[in-house]
Amino acid sequence: MSAPNDPYDPKEVAALSTDELAAAQRAALAAFEAATDLDQLAAAHSAHLGNKAPVALARRELGALPPQARADAGRRVNEVLTALTASYEAARTGLEAARDERVLIEEAVDVTLPWDMTPPGGRHPLTLVQERTSDVFVAMGWEVAEGPEVEAEWLNFDALNIPRSHSAREAQDTLWLDPPDGGVLLRTHTSPVQLRALLARGAPCYVVVPGRVYRQEALDATHSPVFHQLEGLAVDEGLTMADLRGTLDLFAESMFGAGVRTRLRPDHYPFTEPSADVDLLCWVCHGSSTEPGAEFCRTCRSEGWIEWGGSGMVHPVVLQSAGVDPDRYTGYAFGIGMERTLMSRHDLADIRDLVEGDVRVTTALGREA
Ligand code: DAH
């Protein structure tokens, strides 16, 4: 068992000797000077000015000296500390300046280097098409209307003349919100916005409604549970099917180019009477591929026409649901599928190319859209 240190133990106080201090100072100065970067300097700092450095130890020994000797030794220790700190600071300033200079050179950016002008992303073609079609109608004085994607059953079905027993409800496999009999659903089409627009504006009313719709379908090459429609509604005095036809022709030309006409084919929708499906004259062969001996047209499969959407004269029941007098006003409406339109426009076989948002597809289509 060792005895406690004698406070006057000469071995302990040796750290305070002039020779020892001078040796510590020389070693420290040499280390600071030898450091060639800031990491080495930091290591030298902790070795020679840190808690366990000889000068620090020497300083701790001061307390053990008698008062006279303490003052003398304290002065010497402080001189060494001051000299070392100054030398360390000088070395640090020099190395920092050298580092800054090197960073400026090594990390310089050459702003004159040529670069790829193609932007790395692109706006989705569906967005572009929606904006462009909205522009076409706004230019004719129509308004762009919106409605919620979570919709009331009454607006999505009943007010559109699709009662609970109607088979059209089954054709549009509905996603209901909890509770399933609560009358709230994800809208299956943009047609409920016809009513919302009429209720908000009254007649006359001219609106287009681009929007997202939902149906209970599995995602495959030709179906998606979420897709986009563009709805149009015009209600005014004296509107006829001829107005519908003219509007659809203009719309078709704006999307597919001059000379693309539409054809109306009788069909049935509960919210229009009469109702018609809208076909587009094929914008590739303009119908010529149906002639005997003509080359096969991939776009329309040589049928000359491509199915585009539904349309008709607004059913009086719908006008009444919205508080519009059907004896005074008539209206026409149409609804087209955006994905289908884009797919035929760009010859896409798989709807997932539009859904998944692969930036290579969307930029390529966006450029042409
Ligand atoms: N809402 C119909 C659907 O999703 C499309 C439609 C047909 C809209 C005829 C209309 C219309 O405005 O008049 O299948």
Q: What features would you describe in this structure?
A:
With 369 residues, the protein is an alpha+beta fold. The chain folds into 2 domains: 10-106; 125-368, BirA Bifunctional Protein, domain 2, CATH 3.30.930. Helix content is 43%, strand content 18%. The chain has 14 helices and 9 strands. The chain has helices at residues 10-13, 18-34, 38-48, 54-61, 67-106, 125-139, 153-156, 167-171, 192-201, 241-256, 316-321, 338-346, 352-355, 359-368; strands at 143-144, 150-152, 184-186, 205-214, 226-236, 262-269, 272-281, 305-314, 330-337. The strands form 2 sheets. Strands 1-4-5-9-8-7-6 form a 7-stranded mixed beta sheet. A hairpin with a 2-residue loop joins strand 6 and strand 7. The longest helix is centred in the N-terminal third of the chain and has 40 residues, at 67-106. It is elongated, with a radius of gyration of 42 Å. The chain starts with 9 loop residues before the first helix and ends with a helix. The model has no long low-confidence stretch (mean pLDDT 88). 3,4-dihydroxyphenylalanine (DAH) binds next to strand 8 and strand 9.
